[in-house]
Amino acid sequence: MYIERFVLRKPGIAVHGGAGEWSLDSEGEKRVSKRLREALEAGFSILVGGGSAIDAVTEAVSVLEDSGIFNAGSGSALNSAGYGELDAGVMYGPTMFSGAVAAVRVKNPVRLARAVMERTSHVILCCDGAETFAKVLGLGLEAFKPGEEQVRRYRDLISRIDGEGIPPYVRANREIMKRILETGIHGTVGAVAIDSEGRLAAATSTGGIWLKLPGRVGDTPIPGAGFYADREIACSATGVGEAIMTLSLCRSIALVSRFMGSVSSAITYSFEELENLPRFKGYAHAGVIVLTKNSDLYMAFNTKGMARGYISTDQGSPFTALNKL
Ligand code: GLY
Predict the structure, then answer these.
(1) CA-212 nearest atom, ligand 1
(2) Which end of the chain is more exposed for a tag (fewer CB within 10 A), N or C?
(3) Where are the domains of the chain?
(4) Is the whole-model pTM more than 0.90?
(5) Does the C-beta of 59 come closer than 6 Å to ligand 1?
C-alpha cells in the first residue's frame, strides 16, 4: 500500500479519478490531469467564494462525471446486459446527513444523491424509484447514454467471455472481475473538501464494474463504505466495491483514526484488513482520499496508480498525479 500526506490550508479540495494501472502515454496523462484540474478548479472556486464543502464536492464530482474519461457519469462502465447503472453518494460532515442513489440511469447521479440528502427522509434511493424522484422534482437530469468507446469496449469484453455458448451474466462473475481488473480500468471518481469554516464533505460517483450483473450495487452509494464525512474526517474510496463495502472502508479509517490517533496508521490497518479478506484475496484493489479537520490530506492506494489531485489556499495551481511520486 502506498500513502502520501499533504498539509493543506483551508479552504481546500482533493479529487480522485480511480485507482488502477493508469498506464497512459503522455497525451493520455495530460488529458486525465486536465480533467482533474478542471474538477479541482470548479470545486475550489466555490470554496474561495465562501461556499460550503458540500457544494464544492458535488460540483467537482459532477465535472468529473461530465468528462467522459473516468468510470462515472458519461464515461460509466456498462453492465453485462450492455447498459449503464450508475451509483453515487454524498455526505456533509457537520450534520452527518448523507444521500445516495444506486443503479440509476442519469448522467449526473451525484446531483441526484444530493437531492436525496436534502429533500427526502431517506439515505439511498435506487433504480426506477430514484429516477421517478428526479422527474417529480423536475431536476432536469439528462439520461445516461453510453458513448462509442464504451459500446466498443462492451462488445470486446463480451466477445472474450462468450466462448461456451452460455449467457455471460450466468458465468462466475468473480473470474470476469479478475480479468477486468487486470486491465486496470477502475475509474470511480470522488472528492473531499474543507471549507473556510472548517466544514468537511465527501462525494463519490461510479459506473461500477464492467459486466456487473444488472442490479449490482457497489460500495459507492453506501455511506461509510464508498464515502463518509463527520466533523473530524472526510473520505472517498475507489476500487473493488464488494471488498470495500465488506469492511465499510471509509468509516473504518475514520474510527480507527480516532482510536489510534493517527490517520496514516488507520489507513494502513484498514488496507491490511482489506487485503486479508479471504473472498477477495489477490484482487482487493482500492484507493482512498482522506481529509481531516486540520486540513491534512492523505491519498493512498494498493494499485499501481491512482488519478488524484488537490488544491488549497496557499497554492497557485492544482497538484495532480497518476502514479506513485
Ligand atoms: N468502487 C466502485 C464499485 O465497485 O462499484
Answers:
(1) 5
(2) C
(3) 2-323
(4) yes
(5) no
